[in-house]
Amino acid sequence: MNKRALGRTGLDIAPLVLGGNVFGWTADEQASFAVLDAFVDHGFDTIDTADCYSAWAQGNSGGESEAMIGAWVKARPGMRDRVKICTKVGSVTGGPHPGGLSETYIHEAVERSLERLGIGTIDLYFAHWPDPAGTTYAETLGAFAKLIDAGKVKAIGVSNVDAGQLAASLEAAEAAGLPAYQVLQPEYNLYDRAQFEGPLQTLCRERGIGVVTYYSLASGFLSGKYRSERDFGQSARGGDVGRYLDARGKAILAALDGVADKHGAAPAEVALAWLLAKPDVTAPIASATKVAHVESFARAAALSLGIDDMELLDAAGA
Fold this sequence. Notes:
Residues 15-316 form the NADP-dependent oxidoreductase domain. This is Alcohol dehydrogenase. Helix content is 40%, strand content 13%. The longest helix has 17 residues, at 247-263. It is built from ten helices and ten strands. The protein has helices at residues 29-41, 64-75, 103-117, 137-149, 163-176, 199-207, 247-263, 267-276, 291-302, 307-317; strands at residues 4-5, 12-13, 17-19, 46-48, 84-89, 122-127, 153-159, 183-185, 210-213, 283-287. α1 links the parallel β3 and β4. It is an alpha/beta fold. The protein has a single domain (4-244, 268-305), classed as Alpha-Beta Barrel (TIM Barrel).
């Protein structure tokens, strides 16, 4: 499988990243291991998770996904050399998982993540959300610099920031001689385009920042299985897609159906192929609870959309 350079991190990755938010939540150990095995068997090599996954689920406190991935790596000798592992720090969920991006918290959190994952180095460490406590960029980036120097982190990225925030962080890094964020993880899909397209996209392009998108299938809406409120009960995430069922969402589904029929593909595969064809996107992140989902990812990675396909999809979601 052709690899793509992940910004200026020095990492080359397969063109689709496996989202780990479901591991330890809607995917138990057996299902998680099967998905992870299939993912690697199909030639993919990068897994994304976060220290807060899945603190939102009843009985969980965060770290369940990292622990599941760590158990899988331990059970598969040699696997650590075959995969790149990305995780995040800083999400404020309250309770047993306070979050934040202070130097103290980052240094505490990274040790917990490394222990759960059972690895010595995190390939890519993201600042998950802007710190509501107002920690300065210099403090956060200084903490990341120490982790890089200690060999605990190879590269750093940031998620859920706008163009102004990303630019401010880059300026702070340059002013203090600190490492800058090299990868952005924005919410971006055929429906949710406003956050990334425009100034943020331009800044990433100008600064050579890699982009891995989350909610690449809009919580499953772009799979086409949610056509009305009656369909919400199909999964634990079904309730999240109600906001997409407006005129624009239905127009996007119609466009996906048309392109999917033309190529003999599934709507989800077309939605991922649309992201893969965007020149400023390194790779979309997509989650899977079944091996069949991973097989669909492989078909998406091999799907080549024409200019007319892209224009149709762009117009439907504009």
